[in-house]
């Protein structure tokens, strides 16, 4: 996949890192899921479509609250891992490999659409009307994001430096607390009814943080074998010198709740 404005057009493929993604990126803290529940969403029989579901982290973690989930992702490898993980836990979740732009459901099918950690990859012009139609008249769309804070957290900052050393095209560095991106095109069909950011400390082991970073776009999804081997060795060395076996990484969570215009 190549997208203008992302990594200077360098190609990336989440399928290359699906096994790491499945093992190391199920990291959202309880505050993340509780925030969604406190909005009254994704529970109690509601039908939810999760766009860019990856390995199904959001549907799998919220399955216990009674929503009926369907997850889609452009990557067949990601969907394969999502199916394996949900089956291992006896979860009845539908997963499909499908670009967001090709999704096709009858009008009024869903109570909620969730877009987690992937809004900038979507063609908003192509999906805005379709998403509004497949939602029920009072349907909601949740745009969700969690990012580490490299200027406030030493380990996160050093991890970013090493990604840039091996992949200088990566442009997802230097994050600070800010509202999650809501494409202007969405505002033709949706109203923003809530937007909020809050900080969280997320626990990791050395292995867990190493794997989580390897499963990011700038590393496992886009580096070649030689680059990845060099990064892998140097990043692990950095962790042994700068982090205890168990530690916290400073993050923030950013949420936008949208509702179909009346």
Give a verbal description of the structure.
By secondary structure, the chain is α/β, with parallel strands linked by helices. Helix content is 33%, strand content 26%. It is built from eight helices and seven strands. It has helices at residues 18-24, 30-38, 57-62, 76-88, 124-134, 154-166, 206-214, 225-242, and strands spanning 47-51, 68-73, 94-97, 110-116, 135-148, 190-205, 246-260. It has a seven-stranded mixed β-sheet with strand order 3-2-1-4-5-7-6. Helix 1 (18-24) packs antiparallel against helix 7 (206-214). The longest helix is centred in the C-terminal third of the chain and has 18 residues, at 225-242. The chain is globular. 40% of the residues are buried. The mean pLDDT is 97.
- Strand fraction band? 25-35%
Q: Alpha-carbon distance between the termini? A: 36 Å
Helix content estimate: 25-40%
Order of helices and strands: HHEHEHEEHEHEHHE
Number of helices: 8
Quickly give the structural class: alpha/beta
Q: Oligomer, anyone?
A: single chain
Strands in their spatial order, largest beta sheet:
3-2-1-4-5-7-6
User: Mind telling me the C-alpha Rg?
Assistant: 18 Å
State the low-pLDDT regions, or none.
Answer: none
Shape annotation: globular
- Number of DSSP strands? 7
Largest sheet: 7 strands, mixed
Mean pLDDT: 97
